[in-house]
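[INFO] parsing input record for Carbamoylsarcosine amidase
[DEBUG] input buffer:
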Amino acid sequence: MSQEQIYSAAGFGHPVPRGTRPAIIVVDFSYGFTDLQYPTASDASAQMAATRRICDKLRSQGFPVVFSTIAYHPGEIAQLAWLRKAKGMADLLEGTRLVEIDAATGIQPEDVVITKKGASSFFGSNLAALLTAAGTDTLIVAGATTSGCVRATVVDAVQAGFNVLVPRDCCADRAQAPHEASLYDMQQKYADVTSSSDILEWLQSL
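[DEBUG] output buffer:
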């Protein structure tokens, strides 16, 4: 059997229902992940531009726009297990430019910014509570990196009870192979992997 047949036979890949109360979480489009002067970054200019269009549309309709960033206190660096494996993340210190949301995203003062210490935007944060309070039923997940914090956020979003959409042209990674593999995996198990144009068309219909 082909790969597609194997997944289909196992019952994966069904479409995600779309509700009427969307929100977006933009994962880690901070300078540490978007400015190529930093070794942890990748070129995300096109992905930020596509994400910005979705954020602008959601704001105009009164739906939540939330950003996340990773930021550490210097005293945490030696204590956190993740930073022993991913040592490059240790440069993401509170108060530095690396943890600021990239202005190219079009972030606005009214947008919520969540500071996190791990991969998922849900872990150790009040994101689920914010979305629940807003009545969110469908969560759009964009950002960086596809194979890391985006995927972790998508998995936790499903486990928190949200239908999840992932616009592939709004997700950036350091390498193509993990990017594509993660999109495939998310499409099969956790989310609908779609495009920004499809999401904008859906938002226009609400």
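[INFO] The longest strand covers residues 138-144.
[INFO] shutting down worker
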